[in-house]
Amino acid sequence: MNYARTVATEYGLVRGIVRDGCHEYLGIPYAAPPVGDLAFKHPIPPEPWNGILDVVRGPISPVQGKGRSTISPDGRDCLYLNIFVPEDIEPGAPVMVWIYGGSYANGGVGRMGEDSDELSYDMARFARETRTVCVNFNYRLNLEGFLNLHFLDKNFDQNNGLFDQILALKFVRNNIHRFGGNADNITVFGQSAGAACMLVLMGDPKTAGLFDKAIVQSACVGSFWTEKQSQRLTYKYLKMLGVSPDELNKLKDIDIAKIHEANAGLRKLVLHEGNSNCCFSPTIDGVTIKQAPGEMAKSFKGPALFGTTSQEGDLFIMNIPSALLPLAAYWFKFKFRPGKGAHRFMSDDFTAKFYREPAYDIARSMEGSSWVYEYRYQTPNMLKANSGCCHACELPLLFGRSNAYISIDDPVSQRVGEKLREIWGGFAHNGNLSWPAFKDSGEVKGID
User: Fold this and answer.
1) Range with the lowest mean pLDDT among 23-32, 298-307, 322-331, 401-410?
2) CATH architecture for residues 3-447
């Protein structure tokens, strides 16, 4: 094994692996395992360790939302991060920290199989081409990360997944200089649920100081629950699990398969009630999340890049049977126009209301400088499948890796991916972009 250099973190020595042109440090603990007495609590720092900790293989990802087919393996002991340092990078390089999406229920940065070293987010190519030190990390999801149990028992903390993100960012701010990164030049970027969490982090003075710039991709801005809404869902979910409100400690070691089953049931309930929120969305608690995340983000003073895909809604709308479109429009309060093109009309309304217009509103009103892009490119296999430029379709190109749905092996897709990394990396280096700021011009950069 070709080991990377040993690095002294604030908790102990770590030794990574040299692979794919990077020194990779995979599975560094940034928090104590959230199990036993620490389950359903805000995270705390890990215990310091003696000797050298080999961090050469990705961790497992958090407990997944609808079954382990999403990412396997998954589990409770998941609070680890990965760091990618290009081999020949100069000391003091900009730092980029990725926060994944997945409806607060799925996702992670762990390995893709029990016997595989493939990572769900391998950032080696991204790090090399952007000339940055890159970090990604797990945060808890669904039941353990975001279900509101605090109103039933004060020993169960609220919005734990968000606090995982905060502790991971503190680790980066305090330690990344030891890996060759500039702790005073950190860009956080995230997509979908991860981007929506970023809006909260941008708007809280205690957390906005943990990073310097932000790239907000397809944030589901209006999907957080009020306290009242979250309490109602908690009762419903506990009933699905067969756990009464006065026996919450049973949740600490409940079978993960049972969690998967209940998660699927809660998602169906939310959809059938005509709510477009993610069923495990964070709760506006009045403490960390003091108001709607879009309003919070407007106080961010650093540079920020906001963007969407051109047809976000296709991922959610295009598979609805035609006969059910009028009912879906009624349930979710979408615009509906019968006849040919009904799906497209509804999807475009969804895209505008849930993604584009909220992003533009934040970019127009925030204190710092802001830029806006719209991603419009469709890969050849997307065009062949008649798939629109939907939610999350830019991610394979951004990170330079095909996934099960989108192939980027053709030359044009490779060039578009290179362009994305050029824009994202340039922003991390300079805090500026080649097109006019949105507040001044209203200009939206098309990426196609």
Assistant:
1) 322-331
2) 3-Layer(aba) Sandwich (3.40)
Tokens 């295009």 locate to 318
241: its two tokens: 């699990």
CA distance 374 to 357: 12
Using N-to-C axis directions, what is the helix angle for 160-175 and 193-203, rounded to 10°?
A: 70
Contact criterion met (CB below 8 Å) for 61 and 113: no
Helices assigned H by DSSP within 124-192: 124-130, 142-145, 160-175
Question: Residue 357: what pLDDT?
Answer: 97
Task: Look at residue 191 and give its three-state secondary structure.
Answer: strand
Query: Distance (Å, rounded) from C-alpha 124 to C-alpha 98?
Result: 13
The DSSP bridge partners found for residue 311 are none
- What's this model's pTM, rounded to 2 decimal places? 0.96
Distances (CA, A) of 218 to 192, 306, 360, 375, 415: 5, 8, 11, 10, 22
Residue ranges covered by each domain of the chain: 3-447
Q: Which of 293, 307, 298 is nearest to 377 (CA)?
A: 307
H-helix segments, 108-220: 124-130, 142-145, 160-175, 193-203, 205-208
